[in-house]
Write a structure and sequence with these properties.
With 237 residues, the chain is an alpha+beta fold. The protein contains seven helices and twelve strands.
């Protein structure tokens, strides 16, 4: 993974990003696909773009934290714990930040703030979409690894956009292919989104966020999680 991040070319249009290919060793990638939790073990995420007309959601997440991993079979637990260790390593952080040193310098100058890393699996069901957005202001860096079982649905990858007048023009779609992904450092111009997908999409994401906003975000997250669980119980009753 370090070799891919360090050696992969950086694209500059429509904003600075890397397309990452062959991110993990092939045997470990196969093990990762076999270690995905069951759908009911993912936490539903109720944001407006992901909602169906009946109020259910097309997106759910699974954070690679000890309490979430504990119920999994031993082999899956070990695989996902290894993923978390690798993705949150100081070596990967330094490699990513080196690739975007100029972008980060424009945002933060010579003094980087404290950061917190989170790693989670995402499960997007057919119909999922998210509108064009640059990401929230507390986000600093993103790496998303596609967990495609095969290359049959390249079109459901993340789309990149450029502002055009009062709207946006899609410049590229990063193909949803096995063992590929992308990274970028967040700015006000990192416009991206996902157009409505027609197939199941799993991915693994690493986010670096401002530590100074961690408590506020954690409080908001707990409230939203309680709302999500209540809504899920109401629909199930």
């Amino acid at each position: 993974m370090l070799e891919v991040v360090r050696a992969g070319p950086r694209r500059e249009q429509p904003f600075a990003h890397q397309l990452l290919e062959g991110v993990l060793p092939a045997d470990f990638y196969a093990e990762l696909l076999a270690s995905l939790p069951d759908p009911h073990q993912f936490e539903p995420l109720f944001h407006k773009d992901a909602l169906r007309p009946d109020g259910s959601t097309t997106r759910s997440t699974f954070e690679l934290e000890a309490d979430a991993l504990a119920p999994l079979p031993a082999r899956a637990r070990a695989c996902l714990a290894a993923c978390r260790e690798a993705f949150t390593s100081a070596a990967l952080r330094d490699a990513l930040f080196a690739r975007y040193a100029d972008v980060l310098g424009e945002r933060f100058g010579t003094s980087m703030p404290g950061l917190a890393a989170t790693v989670k699996l995402q499960r997007d069901e057919p119909g999922y979409r998210i509108g064009v957005h640059p990401d929230t202001s507390d986000k600093v860096m993103l790496l998303q690894l596609y967990l495609a079982p095969d290359g049959s649905h390249p079109e459901i990858g993340t789309a990149l956009y450029r502002r055009e007048g009062a709207g946006f023009m899609r410049v590229d779609t990063l193909p949803f292919q096995p063992n590929t992904g992308y990274s970028f450092a967040r700015t006000e111009e990192t416009w991206h989104g996902v157009e409505a997908i027609g197939a199941l999409r799993h991915s693994l994401t690493l986010n670096y966020r401002l530590e100074s906003q961690r408590l506020r975000r954690g409080f908001k997250k707990r409230i939203l999680r309680q709302i999500s669980r209540f809504a899920h119980r109401v629909r199930a009753s």
